[in-house]
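Reopening: C-alpha coordinates for the magnesium ion complex, inputs below.
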Amino acid sequence: MGGTFDPIHDGHLSLARDAKKELSLDAVLFIPAGCPYLKRSRLVADPADRYEMTALAIQDEPDFYISDIEVRREGNTYTADTLEELHGIYPGNHWFFLTGADSYSIMDKWVRPDRIFELSTVVCTARDDIDRDELEILRERYTREYGGESIILNMPQIDLSSTAIREMTAKGESTRGLLPETVRRYIDERNLYRP
Ligand code: ATP
Ligand code: MG
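Re-run output (same inputs, fresh job):
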Protein backbone atom coordinates (compact mmCIF):
# COMPACT_ATOMS: atom_id res chain seq x y z
CA MET A 1 0.00 0.00 0.00
CA GLY A 2 1.49 3.26 -1.13
CA GLY A 3 0.58 6.70 0.13
CA THR A 4 1.89 10.04 1.14
CA PHE A 5 0.75 9.25 4.70
CA ASP A 6 0.85 12.95 5.57
CA PRO A 7 -0.19 11.85 8.18
CA ILE A 8 -1.29 8.20 8.23
CA HIS A 9 -4.82 7.85 9.70
CA ASP A 10 -7.53 5.31 10.56
CA GLY A 11 -8.85 5.36 6.96
CA HIS A 12 -5.52 3.96 5.72
CA LEU A 13 -5.41 1.40 8.52
CA SER A 14 -9.01 0.24 7.92
CA LEU A 15 -8.36 -0.10 4.21
CA ALA A 16 -5.33 -2.27 4.96
CA ARG A 17 -7.11 -4.40 7.58
CA ASP A 18 -10.22 -4.93 5.45
CA ALA A 19 -8.28 -5.77 2.29
CA LYS A 20 -6.02 -8.15 4.20
CA LYS A 21 -9.02 -9.97 5.63
CA GLU A 22 -11.11 -9.96 2.45
CA LEU A 23 -8.28 -11.19 0.21
CA SER A 24 -6.53 -13.37 2.82
CA LEU A 25 -3.26 -11.50 2.33
CA ASP A 26 -0.21 -12.74 4.24
CA ALA A 27 0.95 -9.24 5.07
CA VAL A 28 0.56 -5.59 4.21
CA LEU A 29 3.59 -3.52 3.30
CA PHE A 30 3.21 0.23 3.81
CA ILE A 31 5.38 2.29 1.50
CA PRO A 32 5.46 6.02 2.28
CA ALA A 33 6.05 7.98 -0.92
CA GLY A 34 9.33 9.84 -1.26
CA CYS A 35 8.42 12.68 -3.55
CA PRO A 36 4.87 12.10 -4.81
CA TYR A 37 4.86 13.88 -8.15
CA LEU A 38 1.07 14.35 -8.26
CA LYS A 39 1.39 16.37 -5.04
CA ARG A 40 4.20 18.65 -6.23
CA SER A 41 1.91 21.62 -5.87
CA ARG A 42 1.59 21.54 -2.10
CA LEU A 43 3.96 21.24 0.80
CA VAL A 44 4.39 17.72 2.08
CA ALA A 45 5.88 16.88 5.49
CA ASP A 46 9.42 15.56 5.55
CA PRO A 47 9.78 11.98 4.30
CA ALA A 48 11.50 11.12 7.60
CA ASP A 49 8.48 12.35 9.59
CA ARG A 50 5.96 10.57 7.35
CA TYR A 51 8.02 7.38 7.58
CA GLU A 52 8.22 7.62 11.37
CA MET A 53 4.48 8.26 11.75
CA THR A 54 3.71 5.26 9.54
CA ALA A 55 6.08 3.08 11.57
CA LEU A 56 4.39 4.20 14.82
CA ALA A 57 0.93 3.51 13.42
CA ILE A 58 1.64 -0.11 12.53
CA GLN A 59 4.00 -1.12 15.32
CA ASP A 60 1.42 -3.21 17.19
CA GLU A 61 -0.32 -4.64 14.12
CA PRO A 62 0.61 -8.20 13.28
CA ASP A 63 1.62 -8.70 9.63
CA PHE A 64 1.90 -4.99 8.89
CA TYR A 65 5.33 -3.89 7.68
CA ILE A 66 6.91 -0.71 6.39
CA SER A 67 9.40 -0.18 3.59
CA ASP A 68 11.72 2.76 3.01
CA ILE A 69 12.35 2.01 -0.67
CA GLU A 70 10.48 5.11 -1.80
CA VAL A 71 11.68 7.58 0.80
CA ARG A 72 15.27 6.59 -0.02
CA ARG A 73 14.81 7.03 -3.79
CA GLU A 74 16.07 10.25 -5.40
CA GLY A 75 13.66 12.29 -7.50
CA ASN A 76 9.97 11.63 -8.11
CA THR A 77 8.66 8.30 -6.91
CA TYR A 78 6.53 6.21 -9.21
CA THR A 79 4.60 3.11 -8.17
CA ALA A 80 5.69 1.30 -11.35
CA ASP A 81 9.36 1.62 -10.29
CA THR A 82 8.50 0.48 -6.78
CA LEU A 83 6.73 -2.65 -8.02
CA GLU A 84 9.69 -3.46 -10.27
CA GLU A 85 12.00 -3.11 -7.28
CA LEU A 86 9.75 -5.27 -5.08
CA HIS A 87 9.66 -8.02 -7.69
CA GLY A 88 13.46 -7.90 -7.74
CA ILE A 89 13.76 -8.15 -3.96
CA TYR A 90 11.01 -10.77 -3.46
CA PRO A 91 10.83 -12.84 -6.63
CA GLY A 92 7.77 -15.09 -6.72
CA ASN A 93 5.58 -12.93 -4.48
CA HIS A 94 2.16 -11.96 -5.74
CA TRP A 95 1.56 -8.27 -5.04
CA PHE A 96 -1.76 -6.55 -4.51
CA PHE A 97 -1.65 -2.77 -4.77
CA LEU A 98 -4.19 -1.28 -2.34
CA THR A 99 -5.89 1.98 -3.30
CA GLY A 100 -8.91 4.09 -2.41
CA ALA A 101 -11.39 4.84 -5.21
CA ASP A 102 -10.06 8.40 -5.61
CA SER A 103 -6.60 7.10 -6.50
CA TYR A 104 -7.97 4.22 -8.54
CA SER A 105 -10.05 6.53 -10.72
CA ILE A 106 -7.01 8.51 -11.83
CA MET A 107 -4.58 5.66 -12.35
CA ASP A 108 -4.55 6.31 -16.10
CA LYS A 109 -2.76 9.58 -15.21
CA TRP A 110 -0.04 7.75 -13.29
CA VAL A 111 3.30 6.95 -14.86
CA ARG A 112 3.35 3.62 -16.76
CA PRO A 113 -0.02 2.27 -15.55
CA ASP A 114 0.44 -0.77 -17.81
CA ARG A 115 3.45 -1.80 -15.68
CA ILE A 116 1.47 -1.31 -12.45
CA PHE A 117 -1.33 -3.57 -13.71
CA GLU A 118 1.17 -6.08 -15.04
CA LEU A 119 3.13 -6.31 -11.79
CA SER A 120 0.23 -6.26 -9.32
CA THR A 121 -3.43 -6.93 -8.81
CA VAL A 122 -4.80 -3.47 -8.15
CA VAL A 123 -7.36 -3.38 -5.34
CA CYS A 124 -9.85 -0.52 -5.03
CA THR A 125 -11.90 0.37 -1.94
CA ALA A 126 -14.79 2.78 -1.49
CA ARG A 127 -14.04 6.47 -1.10
CA ASP A 128 -15.50 9.93 -1.77
CA ASP A 129 -18.92 8.47 -2.68
CA ILE A 130 -17.53 7.35 -6.02
CA ASP A 131 -20.22 5.24 -7.64
CA ARG A 132 -19.59 1.51 -7.69
CA ASP A 133 -21.00 1.06 -11.21
CA GLU A 134 -18.62 3.76 -12.38
CA LEU A 135 -15.72 1.87 -10.81
CA GLU A 136 -16.79 -1.36 -12.52
CA ILE A 137 -16.79 0.39 -15.90
CA LEU A 138 -13.36 1.77 -15.13
CA ARG A 139 -12.13 -1.66 -14.09
CA GLU A 140 -13.16 -3.09 -17.46
CA ARG A 141 -11.47 -0.22 -19.27
CA TYR A 142 -8.21 -0.66 -17.33
CA THR A 143 -8.15 -4.37 -18.10
CA ARG A 144 -8.79 -3.65 -21.79
CA GLU A 145 -6.13 -0.93 -22.00
CA TYR A 146 -3.46 -2.19 -19.64
CA GLY A 147 -4.10 -5.91 -19.21
CA GLY A 148 -3.83 -7.44 -15.76
CA GLU A 149 -6.77 -7.36 -13.44
CA SER A 150 -8.12 -5.33 -10.60
CA ILE A 151 -10.57 -5.94 -7.80
CA ILE A 152 -13.24 -3.60 -6.47
CA LEU A 153 -13.87 -4.45 -2.82
CA ASN A 154 -17.25 -4.04 -1.25
CA MET A 155 -16.70 -2.43 2.12
CA PRO A 156 -18.01 0.50 4.08
CA GLN A 157 -16.63 3.92 3.24
CA ILE A 158 -14.63 5.82 5.83
CA ASP A 159 -14.85 9.57 5.39
CA LEU A 160 -11.43 10.61 6.56
CA SER A 161 -8.42 12.20 4.87
CA SER A 162 -4.96 13.46 5.75
CA THR A 163 -6.07 16.84 4.40
CA ALA A 164 -8.85 17.01 7.01
CA ILE A 165 -6.41 16.05 9.78
CA ARG A 166 -3.87 18.67 8.68
CA GLU A 167 -6.59 21.33 8.57
CA MET A 168 -7.98 20.37 11.98
CA THR A 169 -4.49 20.38 13.49
CA ALA A 170 -3.77 23.80 11.99
CA LYS A 171 -6.95 25.15 13.58
CA GLY A 172 -6.08 23.59 16.93
CA GLU A 173 -9.06 21.19 16.80
CA SER A 174 -8.82 17.77 18.39
CA THR A 175 -8.13 14.85 16.06
CA ARG A 176 -8.64 12.24 18.76
CA GLY A 177 -10.08 8.99 17.42
CA LEU A 178 -9.12 9.71 13.81
CA LEU A 179 -5.57 8.36 13.90
CA PRO A 180 -3.43 6.34 16.31
CA GLU A 181 -2.56 8.11 19.57
CA THR A 182 1.15 7.48 18.96
CA VAL A 183 0.91 9.42 15.70
CA ARG A 184 -1.09 12.21 17.33
CA ARG A 185 1.59 12.56 19.98
CA TYR A 186 4.33 12.64 17.34
CA ILE A 187 2.52 15.43 15.45
CA ASP A 188 2.15 17.32 18.69
CA GLU A 189 5.77 16.92 19.78
CA ARG A 190 7.18 17.81 16.37
CA ASN A 191 4.71 20.64 15.93
CA LEU A 192 3.66 19.38 12.49
CA TYR A 193 0.88 20.97 10.42
CA ARG A 194 0.73 24.10 12.58
CA PRO A 195 0.79 27.46 10.83
P1 ATP B 1 -4.49 13.67 1.29
O1 ATP B 1 -5.78 14.25 1.81
O2 ATP B 1 -3.27 14.42 1.71
O3 ATP B 1 -4.51 13.36 -0.18
P2 ATP B 1 -5.22 10.96 1.91
O4 ATP B 1 -6.05 10.83 3.13
O5 ATP B 1 -5.91 10.90 0.59
O6 ATP B 1 -4.32 12.27 2.04
P3 ATP B 1 -3.03 9.47 0.83
O7 ATP B 1 -1.73 9.23 1.51
O8 ATP B 1 -3.12 10.45 -0.27
O9 ATP B 1 -4.10 9.86 1.99
O10 ATP B 1 -3.65 8.09 0.35
C1 ATP B 1 -2.95 6.89 0.21
C2 ATP B 1 -3.91 5.82 -0.28
O11 ATP B 1 -4.89 5.56 0.72
C3 ATP B 1 -4.71 6.25 -1.53
O12 ATP B 1 -4.86 5.13 -2.36
C4 ATP B 1 -6.03 6.70 -0.95
O13 ATP B 1 -7.08 6.56 -1.87
C5 ATP B 1 -6.18 5.74 0.21
N1 ATP B 1 -7.02 6.29 1.28
C6 ATP B 1 -6.73 7.33 2.09
N2 ATP B 1 -7.72 7.57 2.95
C7 ATP B 1 -8.68 6.65 2.69
C8 ATP B 1 -9.98 6.39 3.23
N3 ATP B 1 -10.49 7.12 4.21
N4 ATP B 1 -10.68 5.36 2.70
C9 ATP B 1 -10.17 4.63 1.68
N5 ATP B 1 -8.97 4.83 1.12
C10 ATP B 1 -8.22 5.83 1.61
MG1 MG C 1 -4.99 11.49 -1.19
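The chain has a mean pLDDT of 94. The longest helix spans residues 132-146. Marking as resolved unless the reporter disagrees.
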